């Protein structure tokens, strides 16, 4: 009889304690099935046996993560934030009040966690350079450290001043030029980070302007430009985000002809014409004048007829077909190298 | 010669049997033709892009409400951050709910990282376990100066439940949890890296007593704008006129339907809420109580959509609570019909969660569910303020069904919120029905339900163009559904209207059993 009563009571009972459902932060699970999940900190409430509800406390810190930002602080008044996030071995946020030592260039200070996070502001200081921050907690066997993170302290761009160095002599034409500038340094003499951008402006005598993007690498100005079609006097200025240099006079030399111009001709009897070939047009530096340079020709034949043409150089040479075979030709050639006069006496057949 | 031929009784009976057989055959043919016509009128449409083919989901309010930070933060947390982080949280928990339903962690990595991803993935593997975050009231407690790390405390309304392998609900709880969530701002946006439950309290369930006495009502749509057209084509003048007609029938109540998408979609909801307030005002002026039926034409019960439903309630219930015209709220029309397809446990879990949410928003309103069949009455009976059901079954079973539901309800009121008969006549003014047959069947039904505390008739008007979204495209069904009105398409009352008038008078004037003692 007693066994029968016991059997009935067992059958009438609710879920066995081993099979009860536990509610936690991520849902529900059968209490008998997931021991690891039972170690998740926070409230774990038993759906069928509320008196079994418990709050799991986290264990000691096992993992320390550090988050640091901004990555570049401006010397003098920049402020960053170092934040440490601490978890125990089960992945739970550590108990509020856990002491964390946060280290950076401005020293080490202890903060206490709230919600697993401890943080403090980091002052940039006046010394520029690359620095590291880290966090640690505990000591001895319980010591846990974060990895180190780096950050930079850079000079304030607003303190940078641009200064162009006047060229000692006229700058050559048809060359890649690089104007000189004083090294760009901050108030403390430190170089600014590579990549500071600015602009070089040349204002020419004829009212035109040349714009050259400028960058500073290692404190040195990088503003290469090709001195083509900008011969003559100009005023150069350097622009930075917060400053502008005084204008500096710059003279860019004009092109001068090098060797004498060769002239050859071939008769074209079937069409009553003469094929002229002039060149190479060379500069005083020994280079061919660049392809596409304009050349005007004015040819007067023996009969007094005048032929004019606009031409372009290719490989330093200009070619033209003149519809006449009445030699000699009197030829006037105008190019960026100036004007020359030539006489053609004979043409090859 | 007398050529009179005597016709025997047997011949007459055979003739009648033949006629009957022809009628039955004819109705079968008509039904078949209707189905064929319905299929034929459903056109094949080819779409070029998925975006064109898929229905555009209504985007509703965020499931996260923000409070100010309790202490100054290292970085400002303004409206833009609230919107972005609120969306991230809503999507993360929707993904979590979906993962638990599907049992796969795919998709969680878009919203969770680090420890939280591990835990969410593990939670998704527990067979039958479900969790849905319905609402959150959050405040930031830490925001890194460079915007990379955020921690929030929240009060979250959360439903947890378990569905066994048969689809039945075996456990269900709705709690208000205090949570601590840590988020990292990664390349793809905010992800949850840690989430802990700090505290929890169950919701206090308060049951509201119905303020009204017996209700004699009409399920209402205007003749020209039934179902999905109602709120789009809201016409206060027509509604006022119809409410006067309902009052003229002796009715003191009207049951109306709030489509889920209309009140969820931010594009349509503001106007719809204004129209709802106006409808309640019109009802009050006409002396009618209102039974609003929520979430009408809601498709699916997936956990990922429940937060939208909770936001929907937060939007709609204050309007209802502010009106003295609302008698009680019908949470959902006929959800028992969804149980075969969606699973009984899932539907029940949704209803329990929505009831708990509704009571937390508007505790002074009374709530019920409009079951399609009286057999469903025991479902969730422990959570409802009154029991309501629909009765389109055999009239001979109506009284017994009412007794059965009365036994379930105990001392709570029982309302039959849908009864009705079609007057659709296709053949010789009598088949399958007629206005006279309508009135006779309705009278019989109402007599059988004389003991109910409330009766609502479907419906006031015939519908010249019933909504295919609600009833399908079969011409047979359209014909039937389009002729349930007490008032026909010409605006003339049918005989059933007078039956309704008499029944309503009896219902509203009767002495209750308590008063008689």
Verbal overview:
The complex is a heterodimer of chains A (349) and B (517). With 349 residues, chain A is mainly beta. Chain A has 4 domains: 20-56, no CATH class; 61-154, Immunoglobulin-like; 160-252, Immunoglobulins (Immunoglobulin-like, Sandwich), CATH 2.60.40; 263-344, Immunoglobulin-like. Chain A contains 1 helix and 27 strands. Chain A has one helix at 2-12, and strands spanning 21-24, 27-30, 42-46, 54-56, 61-69, 72-74, 79-88, 99-104, 107-112, 117-123, 129-137, 144-145, 149-154, 176-177, 196-204, 209-217, 220-222, 225-226, 232-239, 248-252, 263-268, 273-278, 294-300, 306-312, 318-322, 329-335, 338-344. The longest helix of chain A is centred in the N-terminal third of the chain and has 11 residues, at 2-12. In chain B, the strands form 3 sheets. In chain B, strands 8-7-6-15-12-11-10-9 form an 8-stranded parallel beta sheet. Chain B has a 5-stranded mixed beta sheet with strand order 1-2-3-4-5. In chain B, strands 13-14 form a two-stranded antiparallel ribbon. In chain B, strand 3 (149-163) and strand 4 form a beta hairpin. Chain B folds into 2 domains: 64-202, Nuclear Transport Factor 2, Chain: A, CATH 3.10.450; 215-512, TIM Barrel, CATH 3.20.20.80. Chain B has 17 helices and 15 strands. Chain B has 517 residues and is an alpha/beta fold. Chains A and B meet through strand 1, strand 2, strand 3, strand 7 and strand 10 of A and helix 4, strand 2, strand 3, strand 4 and strand 5 of B.
- In one word, what is the shape of chain B? elongated
Q: Which oligomerization state do the chains in this entry correspond to? A: heterodimer
Named at the architecture level, the CATH assignment of the largest domain in chain A is Sandwich
Mean pLDDT of chain B: 90
Number of helices of chain A: 1
**Radius of gyration over C-alpha positions of chain A, nearest whole angstrom:** 42 Å
Order of helices and strands of chain A: HEEEEEEEEEEEEEEEEEEEEEEEEEEE
Strand content of chain A: 35-45%
Distance between the termini of chain A: 140 Å
How would a crystallographer describe the biggest sheet of chain A?
6 strands, mixed
In DSSP terms (H or I, runs of 4 or more residues), the helix count of chain B works out at 17
Say which CATH homologous superfamily of the largest domain in chain B is assigned.
Glycosidases
Output the CATH homologous superfamily of the largest domain in chain A: Macroglobulin (MG2) domain
- Taken from the alpha-carbon principal axes, the silhouette of chain A is elongated
Instruction: Count all strands of chain A and give the number.
Output: 27
CATH topology of the largest domain in chain B: TIM Barrel
Class of the largest domain in chain A, according to the CATH hierarchy? Mainly Beta
